Sequence to fold (618 residues):
Amino acid sequence: MDPSAATGQSTRDAHAHLSSFFLDAMRLGEPSPPERQRHAPLAPPPSRGQQLDRSYVAVFAEMASPPPALQLKMSPMSKMMQELEITRQFWPPSKPYASLARSSNRDGYASQIGGAAFTKNTTQSGTQHQSGPSSSAQQPLRASARQYQPGPVAASLTVSHYQQPYYASQYQPEQVAAPLTASQYQPYYASQYQPERVAAPQTASQYQPYASQYQSEPAAAPLAASQYEPYAIVPHQSEYGSSFHQRMRAIQAAQAQAMPSRARRCRTLEETRSALLSGAPMELQLVTFPDSAAHVIYLLLHRDGEGYEQILRSVLAGVTRGVHDFIDNKEGHKVLVELLGACAGRQDEVKAIVQAALAPDANGTRYSLLRSTKHDYWEKCVRELMTAAAPYPDLSAMLVDRLMCEGLLKHDRGDQLLQHCFATTRHQDTVIVLQCALDKIDDMIGTASGAKCLVECYARATGHQLQAFNDILLARALEIATGKFSNYFMQHILEHGDAETSRLLVERLMADVVQLSLHSIGSYVVEACYQKAGLLPLVLAAFLRLDDDCLAQLVQGAYANYVVHKLLDTAIHVFPRETMALVRRIDGLPQHVTRRPYARKVMMVVLKLLARYGRMYA
Fold:
């Protein structure tokens, strides 16, 4: 036979094998279960003893082809087979096709893709049939991919023939190297770099971290538990290590002294009594629990108890040593407050506590008595300090001066502390507070806390200081009345000030009644003139003196309309004749004024008063 014809026939056979394999693997050639049942009589299965003397090409063709009734429906399959054939040429090299060989059903078929062997082992006949172009005898094959051996035709149709990429004819296939053993394996780019010689494993005694960069030091003997210090290992800096240990010991000692450890449990009353009677200063940790603080307070309240003086001295020594720690502690400030009450009338003990609160610490740090915290522990303590120091002018003066230096007049709770200070401290000791308020009034009227403090200072002022406040109010009445925070100070003076001062202020404010009534804040001050000050005649007379243009501005003003209609409702019951005169003037304003949105409320009041009192006060 012509060798070229044999080669072409082998190629076509190989293509048929490959196409059949893909169709079988994707199960595209199998009919659906209903169709398989319908066509079952047309193709009865062979008996167990029947011998298959057909070539493996015919077997694959029969397995791949659908029943005759489905030939028309399977026409697209041929096109798919052609596309698979074309796609196969572009596949990259992958595992050999021998790994795709699969074992069929229990009859023991084993297919070879790219070879020329299709063998079936039968147990009844004991004979073997080998189909394919090869004429030489082959050994029987088991239906297993692991024991598969390629036939003679595989020499011409090897697996590498189907693994070549596109344009495979232009390139020589590479030889597959023998698999490397574990000892011969080299990592990526092993051909470009020389592998480093693996050193012998080191023992634990030979191992040194960063051995290539630092000189190893002889290992020290292990430390005992009593010699161990935290952060003892600082690599490669032996000189820094010694100073590091010293710094750590100093920090730990300072922390232990500044913040004593919290008590693990609440002490009983007897344990608290024994601790206080021991003569040692009381520690803050003794009162960290509510029950422990209650025990100390109980012992301070019972002055007739055994060892009361020793208990008082022990608590006093502990508080004066860290008074600010007690001030900031929830339970400790209760003990400080009770201690100040127990020391009432004892000048030496009160002086010791006040001096401890005002004196700087060992580092020169001066603690502020006015905290900016949410809790009110410090406020209670400062109040009790004022009360305890009030009988002693020198201590009271020291405490007041310190509070003024810390900005008491601008503090958020300054008005409350000032009220308590004025209530407990002598007037001679608080004169300096009033003088400071007069000097800082420009800054105080611009803040909410400052305006509140001005209210307290004005209520305490007497003599020339009160006159100084009144002069400032009259001179800057319009400014104070229209201020965001100072208007409250003005309203307070109109309501709680003396009659002469209120009358002078109202007369001064009514000179600018139009400007104040049109102002968003000043309108409230105008209302306070006839509602809080009780000087309605002065306000009503000021409105009657206005011309029609000014009156039209007030009626249609966004804020002034409230001033007008509230004035009419209030004055009609006290001064009805003067009020009706003002009502008729408003009713006679042009319609483009009275029909404005803001003038509707005023006109409703005007129409109501005209209907009720029009004939009576014609």
Notes: The CA atoms of residues 119 and 129 lie 7 Å apart. The chain has a mean pLDDT of 74.
